[in-house]
Write a structure and sequence with these properties.
The chain is mostly helical and 195 residues long. The chain has one domain. It has 7 helices and no strands. Helix 1 packs across helix 3 and helix 2 packs antiparallel against helix 7. Its main location: membrane. Belongs to the DedA family.
Length: 195
């Protein structure tokens, strides 16, 4: 946690924006510390090292721009990848499934994906592959970014003011949040497999 705190303090708001952008928009960014970054930044704001409003703006801007980048990557390159004749993991029928999914659950997926690690990296790209209308995508993108970018740093800020030395427990808290957020996805996958 000390390394994350040092990183946030040295990179400040631009660093937060850049990390959130990469995590939400670039497929290689799935390993970046999204939730722990936001919680830690909230805790640092509670300690007076950062401004909470600045943290929230950096997160929201990075999340919106990152998802737009992910959408355009999927829109531009996704169909070519899924149409390769010998592709093992990327089959053309997956495009049809993605299109149906985003027609039915697109708004929910784009908004709620913010709160699920790895999923928040994949959803914008798959929305682009499935050709979800850009206007709708951006609406849900902004709503999700605001909900995520305000609530998670605010939670860190609140807990940081409430619990002394919270920075020692951030990884445990993030692990618990990740487990709880993945449970509905696992249940849905199991339900789909049974059907």
């Amino acid at each position: 946690m000390h390394d994350l705190t040092a990183l946030i303090l040295s990179a400040s708001y631009f660093g937060i924006l850049a990390i959130v952008f990469a995590e939400t928009g670039l497929l290689v960014g799935f390993f970046l510390p999204g939730d722990s970054l936001l919680l830690a930044a909230g805790v640092l704001a509670a300690n007076g090292d950062l401004n909470l409003g600045g943290v929230m703006v950096a997160v929201i801007v990075g999340a919106v721009l990152g998802c737009v980048a992910g959408y355009w990557i999927g829109h531009r390159f996704g169909r070519n990848i899924f149409s390769q004749p010998n592709a093992k993991f990327f089959k053309p029928e997956y495009i049809t499934r993605a299109e149906l999914f985003f027609q039915k659950y697109g708004w929910l997926a784009v908004i709620l994906a913010r709160f699920v690690p790895v999923v928040r990296t994949l959803v914008p790209t798959m929305a682009g592959v499935s050709r979800m209308p850009l206007g709708l995508f951006n609406l849900y993108n902004i709503v999700g970014a605001v909900l995520w970018g305000v609530s998670v740093p605010a939670l860190g800020y609140y807990l940081g003011g409430l619990i002394p030395n919270l920075d020692r427990y951030i990884l445990i808290i993030v692990g618990g949040v990740a487990v709880v957020s993945v449970i509905p996805i696992i249940l849905k996958v199991v339900q789909a497999r049974r059907a």
